[in-house]
Specification:
Helix content: 40-55%
Order of helices and strands: EEHHHHEH
Distance between the termini: 29 Å
Protein name: HrgC protein
Shape: globular
Number of strands: 3
Strand content: 15-25%
Keywords: Membrane, Transmembrane, Transmembrane helix
Transmembrane segments: 21-38, 44-67
């Protein structure tokens, strides 16, 4: 498990910067399907709620291992780029699974 690491990302077009996280999602562990809703992904939050109800909460135990990677991947495919130190960027690329040519 371990700590989640904070990585700065930047939107290519607008220049807005915000934090992105990689690793185990302790926030999701404690707050569950509310985390995607708080981060502005309402449809994902509703989807997670439905899965949690259908699986009687087992989904809530599995998602903390996956959520930060999925969220980071969605951001990076929506026009955000890694904008931190080289060491943190490499860590994020490894955790997310980005392969550079």
């Amino acid at each position: 498990m371990g700590a989640q690491k904070k990585i700065e990302i930047k939107h290519q077009e607008s220049g807005i910067q915000k934090p992105c996280f990689v690793g185990y999602c302790w926030t999701y562990f404690f707050f569950g399907f509310f985390v995607p809703i708080f981060r502005g992904e309402i449809s994902i939050g509703v989807f997670h709620l439905i899965f949690s109800l259908v699986t009687f909460g087992i989904f809530q135990l599995i998602m903390p291992f996956l959520y930060n990677k999925q969220y980071s991947t969605r951001l990076l495919t929506d026009g955000w780029v890694l904008n931190d130190t080289e060491e943190k960027n490499n860590l994020a690329k490894t955790k997310i699974g980005i392969i550079e040519p």
